[in-house]
What we know:
alpha+beta
Amino acid sequence: MPTKPSTFLSDATQMSQTSENSVANPQTPLENISLTEFNKLKSNLQNMAFASIFLGVFNFFLILVMLWLTGNQINSTQPSSINSRLSLLENKVDQIIEILPPELRPKINVKVNIPDKNLDRWQGNKEVRYVLIEYADLRCPGCAAMHPEIKAFWSKNQSEVAWVFRHFPGTSGNPNSYRLAQTAECIAKYETEEGFWNFINGVYSQSIKETIQGADQLSTVTTKASEVAKCVEQAETKPKIERDLQDVSQAGIYATPTLVFYDTQKNQFYFIRNLGNADYLQQVFEDFKNKQK
């Protein structure tokens, strides 16, 4: 009669061999991971967890602030109240961003293409220190509403600020937006830059229809109607618009209108994250100048 201890030892030996074989099995996924790689993976997972937690808290904070803003009775007869609240919100966001590690900071103060005196569309003196860069869609309702406010701000500050317009067609979902951008650029190419701005003003004020095309219709807005119509048909200005769109993509811009202040002397950009009226733009501009001193 065999003894139980012998059977037990035999089974234990088999289990030990099976365990050793499993460890030696080259199909085990952890075999080839070194301690350094494991620690790096662990660190990455910890960073991802921290980022997820922070973004959740950050979004919750923004929701609370927006509820606070909308919960107060703010109307157009109180621009100073609106501006002070927008400024407070922007400052709070800046404070939160400052405590983040660089790799977790949102792309807010990223660079865009430096305004080009030949390629960009300018309004005002190209030699001034500050430039206001606008990214807009010609069929964006928000852009149309903001346009007269930007114009009022620039008119007041044109001795210090130049205005550059860059195209971001497509955000409105309107199929005419890209063709309107081409038309504006073709007018600038074959007529004058003043003609470009007149066309932009007309589209936003709706004195120019969004469906305008062809030499007959274009003759009401430009003296070079035939050339402009052919230019649009052959997409001659597409490279200029695609350059603007590439700039949008690299900077992480996702909405219109987006406004950016640029200091030509210090080569610094400042993204305006909230849009108000001309008075608010004035306040942001003064703050930007003070930071540059």
